[in-house]
């Protein structure tokens, strides 16, 4: 999953980005509303964390612009403790959730996980596909109850596919959603990671749909 953080406080921005990256996300960041608005309109993010008190362009204006452009990614707004009116404006502009400053990073991470689950039709933190279970809260993967050790890139790839179980995902889409904007992207590496995942999982749940991409589907109901 690829996320955008728009926060003008450089220390807080770095803290959020670091926490998200450690949790297995690809993250881009911006420090003002103008840059954040541009990134949100031009890059395919799975979710965004948006501060409302931004320089150049305020957060509500950024969010309004995203929604006018048809950008549907879930957005968590960051608000000051005593600015309830900001929360109302944020929700009216199209926000999905909010976190009040100061906040515990674990709360923000939990809200991100919840938004991503809901956006892809999953009800709990554990996503299953046949014998494979992925716990988005702990970042652990198991097959038939046996833990599987994955690299960060392998985990990102499996997580994206499992969040989108039942849908064909192209190599281009995977490349756009697994790496941040500074990464030297090469869609051919996706094939390499798919091969490694298949070998580590030891079960045939990742199907190659020739000319289209990859499909995770065992015919079972999503959790």
Task: Please give a structural write-up.
The protein is α/β, with parallel strands linked by helices. It has 2 domains: 119 residues, Response regulator (Rossmann fold); 91 residues, Orthogonal Bundle (Arc Repressor Mutant, subunit A). Helices cover 41% and strands 22% of the residues. The protein has a 5-stranded parallel β-sheet, sandwiched between helices. Strands 6-7-8-9 form a 4-stranded antiparallel β-sheet, with helices on one face. The chain has a two-stranded antiparallel ribbon with strand order 10-11. β7 and β8 form a beta hairpin. The mean pLDDT is 88.
In the CATH hierarchy, the third-tier topology of the largest domain is known as Rossmann fold
Unreliable residue stretches? none
**Mean pLDDT over all positions:** 88
Strand order of the largest sheet: 2-1-3-4-5
The SSE string, one letter per element, is: EHEHEHEHEHEEEEHHHEE
User: What share of the residues does DSSP label as strand, in percent?
Assistant: 15-25%
State the CATH superfamily name of the largest domain. Response regulator
Count of DSSP helices?
Answer: 8
- The portion of residues assigned to helices is 40-55%
Rg to the nearest angstrom? 18 Å
Biggest beta-sheet profile: 5 strands, parallel
End-to-end separation: 19 Å
Structural category: alpha/beta
| CATH top-level class of the largest domain | Alpha Beta
């Amino acid at each position: 999953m690829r996320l955008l953080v728009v926060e003008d406080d450089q220390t807080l921005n770095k803290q959020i980005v670091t926490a998200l990256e450690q949790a297995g996300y690809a993250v881009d960041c911006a420090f003002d509303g103008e840059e954040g608005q541009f990134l949100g309109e031009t890059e395919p993010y799975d979710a965004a964390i948006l501060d409302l008190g931004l320089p150049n362009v305020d957060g509500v204006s950024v969010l309004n612009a995203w929604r006018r452009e048809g950008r549907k990614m879930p957005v968590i707004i960051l608000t000051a403790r005593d600015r309830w009116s900001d929360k109302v404006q944020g929700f009216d502009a199209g926000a999905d959730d909010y976190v009040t400053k100061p906040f515990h990073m674990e709360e923000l991470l939990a809200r991100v996980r919840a938004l991503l689950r809901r956006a892809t039709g999953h009800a709990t933190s554990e996503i299953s596909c046949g014998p494979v279970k992925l716990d988005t809260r702990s970042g652990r993967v198991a097959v038939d109850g046996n833990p599987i050790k994955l690299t960060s890139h392998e985990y990102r790839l499996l997580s994206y596919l499992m969040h989108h179980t039942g849908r064909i995902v192209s190599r281009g889409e995977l490349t756009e959603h697994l790496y941040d904007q500074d990464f030297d992207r090469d869609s051919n590496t996706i094939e390499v990671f798919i091969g490694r995942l298949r070998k580590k999982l030891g079960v045939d749940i990742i199907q190659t749909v020739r000319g289209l991409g990859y499909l995770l589907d065992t015919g079972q109901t999503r959790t």
